[in-house]
Amino acid sequence: MPQVDTHCPYCALQCGMRLDGVRVTPRDFPVNAGGLCQKGWTAGALLTSPRRLTTPMIRVDGALEPVSWDFALDFVARKLAELKEQHGPDAVAVFGGGGLTNEKAYLLGKFARVALGTSQIDYNGRFCMSSAAAAGIKAFGADRGMPFPVTDLKNADVVLLAGANPAETMPPFVQHLRGADLIVVDPRRTPTAESAGLHLAPAPGTDLALALGILHAVVEGGHLDRSYVDARTNEFGEAWRIAATWWPERAERVTGVPAADMRLAAAKLANARNAYILTARGTEQHATGTANVGGWINLALSLGLPGREGSGYGCLTGQGNGQGGREHGQKADQLPGYRKLDDPAAREYVAGVWGVDPDSLPGPGRSATELLDALGTDEGPKALMVFGSNVVVSAPRSGRVQDRLSALDFLVVADFVLSETAALADVVLPVTQWAEEDGTLTNLEGRVLLRRKAIDAPPGVRSDLDVLNGLALRLGKAGFPADPETVFEELRIASKGGVADYSGVSYDRLRDGEALHWPVPADDHPGTPRMFLDAFAHPDGRARFAPVEYSGPAELPDEEFPLQATTGRVLQHYQSGAQTRLIKELDDVVPEAFVEVHPDTAKRAGLEEGDPARIRSRRGETVAKVRFVQSLKPDLVFLPFHFPGEQRANLFTNPALDPVSRMPEFKVCAVSLSTVDGAA
User: Fold this and answer.
1) In this predicted structure, what is the pLDDT of residue 29?
2) Cα dist. 106→103, 329, 436, 464, 490 in Å?
3) CATH dotted code for 146-316
């Protein structure tokens, strides 16, 4: 096949690249400007992995055996129909992923609600961006991670990054920050924090206390943009009533961040001509994640940043289609176009597009963590279908998740390799990879992209859309096309009039290279690269301050578990590692889990650098090799979450949920540290 311009299969930057067969070269695209990270450069190796699945498999006498596609799909459809008949439609659940294309996310949501009739559908984006999404909707009336183009950051004087480490997680992004004075909020001195003019290192789980302290410093220092607050916002008084009690010295006692640094951060942001506040997983993956993000948005609003060209607030979306994946219906409470499933008008409109009775659509189901926890229980689903996710590694309290999967009557996994989740399945369906099919994704700035087919899939492999089409037909349901452009044409109609309106986006416009940031409500509409310049998305056009109270981590250290653990990514790996661990060049650099520990803390536990250590919480334990990090807080340890088996960081993480977003508290829990054969 000829060279094809396409996009990277990993993070939400969706860097532009060119494929010549499986050979990757970067191309000049706004978000990466000709750069790629190690993962992008090596992405072509995924396409020829010897671990590739090419034949459907069914478990027989405990082992997975190859079968034909017709046999596999017939078997799956029959089992799903039997379980629905015996236990009702909610006996079957569906779990999607933030890496699925818009077309797959859309059709998966439709398949669950129309072909299966189940309310039990959610996706792994619930683990990633849901707190920022909830806070953004409350504040602005709409959630688009970055409501401005990435390239706007090049003109920033000051950028505050809260819980973000783009130097490792999305390196090409860093070039857009080079002209800015960086303020980095992170308990660890990461490579991003190393480049900052000001590093604020709060104790894990105290992000909101820090945001409240800086907001107090803004008002105390005379920096409040009163004209903006009066003209464009509501509810400042309620937010200030709380922040007024968080003078920086009080916030210092909770967070460990010097009060002088909070006042310096406030002054830097206020005195900048152009300033941005950006949040990411470090501040979002908490049982108070929505409130945490609300605190940072309050700070941005107090300075008059959102809805002003050259300044703003944004969320650094993580997964490749983390933005589009949460817009079109694979989320438990959602319909296409970012419509709410419990909105009668939304139900009526989408049901009309689908040709069904609105009353036949189920209501909202369980969120991701609650769904996984209910599997195989008396009141929970008896069957699960997984597309684009590896929950055995990525979900909190993953030992419990593995047990729940084993308790199911029936588990079906569609994947291109035998991931840790697929290895437990009753049926495994081999599906296409990123370069083997057309499809759209929506990057972190709300730009809809066409990722184009560059190579043919191996014989025997089908796309997820083909799988859904084949199963729907066997379940007696039509209207599930397998062609991505046909699916997208339906998605356009289904999203029309919604918050995330794609009705003016078409494959032809994307093929022609148009830059289309949603909403795009008409065929001749140029898109909306910068949202909120004239008004916010609430009916009155005004943004909302959030009256957020600090409560701290869901779990505090004690005598048995005296340390705090936090988790995150490393440069060479991505998410559960199911892709990057297959690439020798990446796996050779970081082949196994490690735990970062202050040398004094390690030695008190009888550990030297390179020793295997046991990290234990109230939920489980993992084993990882010790790395000494002198800059780490003595009461903190850090582990990457990319590794399987007994190296899973999520064996010990806390599934405590945010009450609004239902986000688990990945970023902080109480642990002990010991030698592998010793007591903590």
Assistant:
1) 95
2) 5, 6, 19, 12, 9
3) 3.40.228.10
